[in-house]
Design a protein that fits this description.
The protein contains 14 helices and 19 strands. It is α/β, with parallel strands linked by helices. The chain folds into 2 domains: about 160 residues, Leucine Aminopeptidase, subunit E, domain 1 (3-Layer(aba) Sandwich); about 325 residues, 3-Layer(aba) Sandwich (Aminopeptidase). The strands form 4 sheets. It has an 8-stranded mixed β-sheet with strand order 7-8-10-9-13-17-14-15, with helices on both faces. Helix 9 links the parallel strand 9 and strand 10. Helix 4 runs parallel beside helix 5, helix 5 runs antiparallel to helix 9 and helix 9 packs across helix 14.
């Protein structure tokens, strides 16, 4: 979709769109347009019952001879000072309405007293997010989910500032779209090798990318990760990425670690067949990490940020890991594998250790579609957050509320340690009972964290949606890219 920026509102032609706030429904140009058309617009508003509430839309074809052919009024009573959440949702709503009407080009008239430059960029961001479509595998165009909107012209007195902020938000959009693309790809196309290739492609943006193949992984003694991978014909990979945006500082501000299980059958502890096709997005953590690193590179963030993703496929076969097997992790700690379907934490155990050893970050965050239990606990509106640092979790919680990608603080204290005690090894990979399954996973990961601030985000419930949501068409959501970009932005300006 093409976006153009203009400062002279008089140059706007057909298909004019105005945002009408309840306390100030008419701005100057709309009032002038109404007078030129003998009060036609106000009369139409009165007759239609248009009341300026959220998600109200009035589409008017103007009389012959008017300076515009069509105007669309979008009503909102949202708080324009909410940090951008509702403004972005408003943009997404605009896209929905325009697509319903099959409108290809729209001229959005912004009043500078209503929205500032950043808020106008947020509006565009919301418009763009709802244009996403994953149509890669349709053989007929008639079956594709169509996005009709091709061009948006935005007219504003803030245009210089809007364009400046848009550079930031378009970078976020690109990262979100990459994440959505990756989690949407079927597993026969997106194997560990292909996902590693996608990561390497980001080197063109200035990221330093290093790939470890199976031979190098074995040399590093990543026994936990290799145990998951051994049942698949598709070989494992570990990929690290580094962005050095602050040449003065030598240390790494943040390191992000992503689970990349490109397909999860459960292994020998095989999953039920119903819904197993969704396990193509069990690499969602790695997809968010790659989308984030793309965003950070595109906006040339002034921070030093690194990332590690562990890429495997969890399959049942004659060579697959068995329940009861004991593996030795890169850290030297041994793990009794009780359930081969608790494979993500095994992958993360080794790459968390590797990431800390390689980058020595002050803060580390891992992301994983780790447990179904987190969906049982908190549903699909928030990510589960586990951390060994309360100030760190407070920081992330605050950012999540600001941008609309919310997290919920979950327990990870020592009282849960006994749940993963093993009779024959240092630990087992699942808890002892049905309760606190997500916490058991987090407690397990905590054992592979050295003396650093750590956070685990369980994104199992927020990575995919089966229905359209305000900022997300059904499918991959891209949840986490905006959250973590804003976290880096606020802490590394």
């Amino acid at each position: 979709m093409k976006i153009n920026f203009y400062s002279d509102q008089k140059k706007a032609g057909e298909n004019l769109l105005y945002i009408c706030y309840k306390n100030k429904p008419f701005h100057k140009q709309l009032e002038e347009l109404n007078k030129k058309n003998k009060d036609y617009i106000k009369k139409a508003i009165k007759i239609s019952g248009f009341d300026y509430k959220n998600n109200n839309c009035l589409d008017l074809i103007l009389p012959k001879g008017s300076t515009a052919d069509r105007i669309i009024l979008i009503g909102t009573n949202s708080n324009k000072n909410d940090g951008g959440k509702e403004i972005s949702k408003l943009g997404s709503f605009i896209t929905s309405k325009l697509n319903q009407k099959k409108i290809k080009n729209i001229n959005i008239i912004c009043n500078s007293s209503d929205l500032n430059g950043e808020q106008e960029a947020m509006l565009l961001y919301g418009i763009c997010l709802n244009t996403y479509r994953f149509n890669n595998y349709f053989s007929k165009k008639s079956k594709m989910r169509v996005n009709y909107l091709e061009k948006v012209n935005i007219f504003s007195k803030n245009i210089a500032k809007t364009k400046l902020f848009w550079k930031h938000y378009v970078a976020i959009k690109e990262g979100v779209f990459l994440t959505r693309d990756l989690v949407s790809e079927p597993a026969n196309f997106l194997t560990p090798k292909m996902l590693a290739k996608e990561a390497k492609n980001l080197s063109s943006l200035g990221l330093k990318v290093e790939e470890l193949d199976e031979k190098k992984i074995k040399k590093l003694k990543m026994g936990a990760l290799l145990g998951v991978a051994q049942g698949s014909a598709n070989k494992p990979y570990v990929v690290s990425l580094e962005w050095k945006g602050n040449k003065i500082k030598k240390n790494t501000d943040f390191t992000f670690v992503g689970k990349g299980v490109t397909f999860d059958t459960g292994g020998i502890s095989i999953k039920p067949s119903g819904g197993m096709e969704e396990m193509k997005y069990d690499m969602g953590g790695s997809a968010v990490v790659l989308g984030l690193m793309k965003t950070l590179a595109l906006r040339k963030t002034k921070a030093n940020v690194s990332a590690v993703i562990g890429l495997v496929e969890n399959m049942p076969s004659s060579t697959a890991q068995r329940p009861g097997d004991v593996v030795t992790s890169m850290s030297g700690q041994t793990i009794e594998v009780i359930n081969t379907d608790a494979e993500g934490r095994l992958v993360l155990a080794d790459i968390l250790w590797y990431a800390q050893k390689k980058f020595k970050p002050s803060k580390i965050i891992d992301l994983a579609t780790l447990t179904g239990a987190i969906i049982v606990s908190i549903g699909q509106e928030k990510a589960g957050m586990f951390s060994n640092d309360s100030s760190f979790s407070d920081m992330v919680n605050k950012v999540g509320l600001q941008v609309g990608e919310e997290v919920w603080n979950m327990p990870v204290d020592d009282s849960y340690e006994k749940d993963i005690s093993s009779d024959i090894a240092d630990m087992k990979n699942v808890g002892s009972g049905r309760g606190a399954g997500s916490t058991a996973g987090a407690i397990f990961l905590k054992r592979f964290i050295k003396d650093t601030s750590w956070m685990h985000l369980d994104i199992a419930g927020v990575t995919w949606t089966k229905t359209d949501k305000p900022l997300t068409p059904k499918g991959g959501t891209g949840f986490g890219v905006r959250l973590l970009d804003e976290l880096v932005y606020q802490n590394c300006k």
